[in-house]
Amino acid sequence: MGIKGGLGKLFVKKGGLGNEGDYLDLDIEEYEAELKEEEGVKMYIKTAELTGLYDIPELKKEIYAGNILILDISLAKQDKVLIEKVIKDLKMAAFDVGGDIAGVSDDQVIVAPTGIKIERKKMSMR
After folding, report:
1. What is the pLDDT of residues 22-46, one digit of tens each?
2. Contact call for residues 60 and 104 (beta carbons, < 8 A)
3. CATH label, 45-112, candidates 3.30.70.1350, 3.30.110.150, 3.30.1540.20, 1.25.40.10
4. pLDDT band at residue 81 under the 50/70/90 scheme
5. Could you tell me the residue ranges of all domains in the chain?
6. How many CB atoms lie under 10 A from the CB of residue 56?
C-alpha cells in the first residue's frame, strides 16, 4: 500500500456525501505502523534506565523483539543484588535469542539480538 492508500485510511466518512465536517479523524498509529513495515525497519536501538526489578520484563521484551538495548544502570548501582539479578536475567535472554551482552562502561550495559556480536576490544585510532 502506498502513501495515497494510507492517507485514505486516516479519515472515515460518517455517512453519505456531505460537508467537510462529516469526516471523523482516526488514530494515525495504524498508518505509521504500516509505513514502518514498508520502510523495512527490522530493529531499533533503544535506551533505558534501570530503576528496579519491575523493569526486567520490559527490558527482556525488547531483547526478544530483536532490538538493541543500551541500559543505564547508574541509578541502581548502589544495590548490588539488583544489578546481579538484572544482569543474570539479561544474559539468559541474550542467550535465548542467540545475542550478546557486554558492559560498555561502569554505568552502561548493551544487549544485542541475534546475528550481532559485541566487540569487547576498544578500537585504537592511532
Report:
1. 666 666 776 666 666 667 777 889 9
2. no
3. 3.30.110.150
4. very high
5. 3-39, 45-112
6. 17
Per-residue pLDDT reduced to its tens digit, 94-108? 999 999 999 988 899
Residue 72 phi, psi (nearest 5): -90, 115
| The amino acid at 2 | G
Backbone angles phi, psi at 115, to 5 degrees: 85, 0
Report the predicted TM-score, pTM, of the whole model to 2 decimal places: 0.65
Q: What are the start-end ranges of the H helices in the chain? A: 3-10, 29-39, 56-64, 80-97
Q: What Å distances lie between residue 17 and 13, 78, 119, CA to CA?
A: 8, 65, 62
Q: Looking at the DSSP assignment, which residues form a beta bridge with residue 91?
A: none
Residue 2 neighbours by CB under 8 Å, 6+ apart: none
